[in-house]
Amino acid sequence: MPHRIDCAGRSLDLRRPCVMGILNVTPDSFSDGGDFLGYEDALQHARQMVAEGADMIDVGGESTRPGAAVVPEQQELDRVIPLIEALSAEVAVPISIDTTKAQVMREAVSAGAGLINDVNALRSEGALSAAADLAVPICLMHRQ
Q1: 121 phi and psi, to 5 degrees?
Q2: CB 111 within 8 A of CB 88
Q3: Where would I find the Pterin-binding domain in this sequence (predicted)?
Q4: 23-81, pLDDT tens digit by residue?
Q5: pLDDT averaged over the chain?
Q6: Domain 17-140 is of which CATH architecture?
Q7: 3-state secondary structure of 30
Q8: Pick from 11, 41, 72, 118: most CB atoms within 10 A?
Q9: What is the reported pLDDT for 69?
């Protein structure tokens, strides 16, 4: 097993456990209750997580809590792309995109994300093709 993975030019060291800082920019997040929906609040929270030792930042624009409403693709893009662009220019740690949507994956990687985090294990329409085309590391959720 490699000791490091390349996340779009940013290295993730796998010789030790890694801390993923979660940045949910949704009003209905189960983990933070929508505290970081605003752009500046979200950026500041990401900066704080990196300063406190996060090895990577995971940006999500659609809640995955049970019963959460589906977010239209454009709304998800509007939530995550500006943050990924800003974080990519500002922090040295890898950035991941937490999404199940193929177009969000594509645009997020283009904006600077170096890893895809898909709780639907690439089962959404076009997700597998997008992941193959983008050739970045992928985190998949196991489901039975």
Answers
A1: 55, 40
A2: yes
A3: 17-144
A4: 999 877 666 666 676 889 999 999 999 999 999 999 999 988 888 889 999 999 999 99
A5: 91
A6: Alpha-Beta Barrel (3.20)
A7: coil
A8: 118
A9: 85
Q: Which two tokens stand for residue 119?
A: 């709780």
The two tokens of residue 69 are: 């409403």
Copy the structure tokens of residue 59.
């940006």
Per DSSP, the three-state class of 107 is helix
- What predicted TM-score, i.e. pTM, was given to this entire model? 0.92
Task: State mean pLDDT over 106-128.
Answer: 96
Q: Please state the three-class secondary structure of 44-105 as a single string.
A: HHHHHHHHCCCCEEEEECCCCCCCCCCCCHHHHHHHHHHHHHHHHHHCCCCEEEECCCHHHH
| Kind and range of the H or E run holding 130 | helix 127-134
Neighbours of 142 (CB within 10 A): 5
Q: Domain coordinates of the chain in residue numbers?
A: 17-140
CA distances from 46 to 1, 13, 15, 50, 74 (A): 29, 19, 24, 6, 23
